Amino acid sequence: MSQQIPIKNYLAGADIARYLIVKFGANDETVVPAAAATDALVGISMETDALNGEGIDIAHAGIHQVRAGGAITRGALITADANGKAVAAAPATGANAKVIGVALATAAADDIIPVIIAPGETQGA
Question: Which residues sit opposite 34 in a β-bridge?
Fold first, then answer.
């Protein structure tokens, strides 16, 4: 039985800074920064930046760092803002938001905080 490490190397389909939430790009091997709470979020960029066309490691599971795009309270489900940064998931009543995981610390904009990666979806009540 082979063991899979929850980090995979992709090609950056755009410039990607470290600690951003990503989605798939033009094909199975390309990722780009996520741009909305409705994007299919697949992971978080690791400790290095990548220019368009370069390789980049993406974390798909475990506890990893993410850059906050606004105020987040520890324990909150997080999603992506328009820049791939983490924000608290707060969909309107009946609307859905994709989530990348759960914040393990409270943050302000541009703080780097740990998150448990657990992709999913939540609906506003």
Answer: none
pLDDT of residue 4: 64
Q: Taking a C-beta distance cutoff of 8 angstroms, is the pair 94, 63 a contact?
A: no
Please give the C-alpha separations between residue 106 and each of 45, 48, 51, 67, 72, in angstroms, as whole numbers.
20, 23, 30, 12, 5
In a domain, 2, yes or no: no
Contact (CB, 8 A) for 82 and 35: yes
pTM above 0.90, yes or no: yes
CA distance 75 to 107: 11
Output the six-digit token pair for 69: 């795009």
From 18, 45, 61, the end of a domain falls on 61
pLDDT at 74 over 60: yes
pLDDT at 43: 98
Share of the chain above pLDDT 70, in %: 97
Domain total in the chain:
2
Tell me 64's DSSP state: E
